[in-house]
Amino acid sequence: MQLMRAPSTQVHLVTVLEEMPVQETLDGIAELEAADLPVGRVLLNLVRPELVTAPTRDALDAGSLDETAVAAALRSVSLSSDAAGPLLAQARAHVERQVLQEQQREVIGDCGRPVVELPLLGDGVDQGALFELARVLRDTIGTPTQETAR
Fold first, then answer.
1. Which of 118, 121, 120 is nearest to 136 (CA)?
2. Using one digit for the tens of pLDDT, what is the confidence trace for 53-109?
3. Contact at 8 Å (CB) between 26 and 111?
4. Alpha-carbon gap, residue 55 to 121, rounded angstroms
5. Are the C-beta atoms of 88 and 70 separated by less than 8 Å?
6. CB neighbours of 66 closer than 8 A, spacing ≥ 6?
7. How many other CB atoms sit within 10 Å of the CB of residue 20?
């Protein structure tokens, strides 16, 4: 317990931007603080990038981007218009996921702890992906010597 309560020790928590994991992280922070254990950062893992632009998102919300418009756009670049329906469904699902992610980002942002976001790695985890995650952590947190000096 001496090591756990040492000034140089911090408990960092990792979560994903979904309702239950975020709530469990908030509960964990409260329990750690109640036990007088030093809480460090919250790492948000698997953060999805925004793939739908704001104007497209607005058009989806307004209903002005429909299957007919998408089919016409696909035909204008010599692509099959058969993909219009599935493309719209995927865009709507992605926007819904982004809204959930944004809501949970706000919730966890009020936890009083520094938050670090780690991106979703679409191609799986290999050595290059680990280096990318390490770069994100280094750029966000700093090197161990920098961290110790803070």
1. 118
2. 889 889 888 888 889 989 999 999 999 999 999 999 999 999 999 999 999 999 999
3. yes
4. 26
5. yes
6. 88
7. 10
